[in-house]
Amino acid sequence: MSFDYRVSVIVPIYNQEPYLEAAINSLIRQTIKPKEIEILLIDDGSTDASPMICDEFANHYPNIHVVHKTNGGLSDARNCGINNAQGKYLMFLDGDDTLREDTVEAVVDFFDKHYDEVDLVTYPSVSLKNGQPTSPHYRYQTLKQSGVYDLTKWDNIFAAVTRIEVCVKNLAEDNILFSSDRSFRHEDEKYCTDVILNKLKIGFVNKGAYFYERQPEGIQNTYFHAFYIFENTMTFWEEEFGRFESMVPQYLQALFVSDCAWKIRSDILFPYHYDKQHFEEAVDRIKTLLKRVDVEVISAHPALNHFQRAYLLQLVDRNVSCLAGPSHLALTADKKLVYSRSKIEIILLKNIATPDALIIKGFLKSPCFQFTEKPNLYARLNSEDRFSTETVKVKKSSWSYNNAKTETNLFWGFTYEIKINSIANQALLSFEVDYMGMRHETNYYFMPKAIFSLKAPKRLA
């Protein structure tokens, strides 16, 4: 198969006038020779000045080609580019993003050396929020050095290629295309996954960069809310898992867990708008997929915290047990250790001083709580003139709804009042927890917006 260019960079465009020149210029400035790169601008029925900008660039640069089409959506525009591309490799750039100037050359040079080993090569992406870089994605804890990564190996399963900072082979009529269903929001992830699963290996080039501006969280959470995409999303994961009769590759398992993790945090995983019967059926679909996920993948996944791990394991009843020792608490699932800590967390919400008392409000946190009995909380007061231990009543806290409308964990709330006139000027207060027959020390944390007040509250919840 012969090609006119080494690589085609496909740019889908719809009403991106304010950003388009920067995107195209970032491609013109690439270090690869102009005769080796095709810049393919797909105008998807724009109604602003984007079509004119595309044509002006094409009139000045012979390697820039423009296709004007009726609006069909992002994936349809990309597919149009794939079908018209004349390069050996295909790369993608959205019309409001940019590439660092050394990106394309580094990627295609690497691909030429490893053509028979991989079907996809990825490279660094930099997420920008208000023009400033945000924290790197957890995939870069795995993808560090340039090379070929075998995704069947445990060390590589969290590589998580889910966006279009990728380069793939141009296979002409055998090209994989993007899902053109406009209500499907995981088109990038599905495309990359469909390419990768053929060999379960990827290339990574630690050069260049894809810069993209993050959408506001409110917009992103709306787009990806189960209200709009639950059925399509579940069908996607069911089809991907359904390719495998027995063990699902851990790389694919990790992708699904990651999807659950960020949607749980944003409270957009579950279709709350369903009636009771259909909601239960929807949750069962999630559970069915999670049952095919190895405990090790959940317990080690970098996108999950301890409480989310415990919730997912509880959701699918993975034989979770809590163990208490003299100096630690541990959770096991299917007899495999998933959590171990020496202290129980106490989160302090309010500290209110009245003329005669100090009122402390908080809650206890441990992923073990949802699997065993209620803990006992004790306040120890050590002052110049006395030492005392007092039992503090605990009750289920509303914080058990941990960033969700559904109860994901079980946290125990408390309110403790110290009569100031009953103690000396200097006193040391500490809390201990009696849990599963063992006395446990505690760590204390203030909420980011913890309340410190001199005004007595009208009501303590």
What structural keywords apply?
461 residues; Immunoglobulin-like; alpha+beta; elongated; 3 domains; eight-stranded mixed sheet; single chain; five-stranded mixed sheet; 31% strand; Spore Coat Polysaccharide Biosynthesis Protein SpsA, Chain A; 24 strands
Please report the first level of CATH classification, the CATH class of the largest domain.
Answer: Alpha Beta
Biggest sheet statistics: 8 strands, mixed
Instruction: Name the structural class.
Output: alpha+beta
Number of domains: 3
Roughly how many Å is the radius of gyration?
A: 27 Å
Cα distance, first to last residue? 71 Å
Q: Would you report the number of β strands?
A: 24
State the oligomer.
Answer: single chain
pLDDT averaged over residues = 91
- The outline comes out as elongated
Low-pLDDT segments, ≥5 res: none
How would you describe what is shown here?
With 461 residues, the protein is an alpha+beta fold. It has 3 domains: 5-214, Spore Coat Polysaccharide Biosynthesis Protein SpsA, Chain A, CATH 3.90.550; 220-304, no CATH class; 344-453, Immunoglobulin-like (Sandwich), CATH 2.60.40. It contains 11 helices and 24 strands. A hairpin with a 3-residue loop joins strand 18 (376-383) and strand 19. The longest helix has 17 residues, at 226-242. The mean pLDDT is 91.
